Give the backbone structure.
Amino acid sequence: MRNFHSTFILCFLGFLFIQARAIPSWKSCTADSDCQATGEFCDLGTLDPRCIYNSAPIFAFTLTSSSVLTYVKEAGYENNAALCPSFDTCTKNCRKEYSVEKTLTQVTLTSTFTDTTECVCDKLVFNYELLSGDDSLSLISTSTGFGTPANTLQIQQYTSAALDMWIMEENSSGGATVDCVWEYSISTPSTTPSSSSTSKLKVLVGLFSATFVALMLA
């Protein structure tokens, strides 16, 4: 039991402190040791093994309603740029940053870009799903294809500070003609009192001090 707890703690800490990147390197490999430099493991369950990250287990999913997602970069599956369609300017503006609303059943992403007559950003609504065969959490959406043939969006978190949004078009044969991933950093903005709140606090402190002095002199 002691060994189990030690392994659990080490795995959890490994998830928390893994480098803050989300898109896999997809480096060809034959063993986990080939992937250690990037903190990944070798996916030996495929015909063409590549280095990838473990998805976050449910307990380690760190996205909250205070989170802000900031776009970092995109890549096609296994670094195949042809799998990322040419997204229009509106999509590129909308994807730059998202605020998060999280409930027990859904995660909604709202772009912080101000809508214009030429560009109205879609809200992205994701539902929780468990990945088959393990306890990893995935978020699935069919709310938009960003103006492309894509019909499925998926969020997977690999580190405590970053996640991937997959944009996919699944065809009848089970393959994908669009398989593009956007990497996002996860942050929580610090909250500071507004100037008006600060001024009101100073007034209240001043009144309290004056009242206290008056009572002492009475």
User: Anything to note?
Assistant: The mean pLDDT is 76.
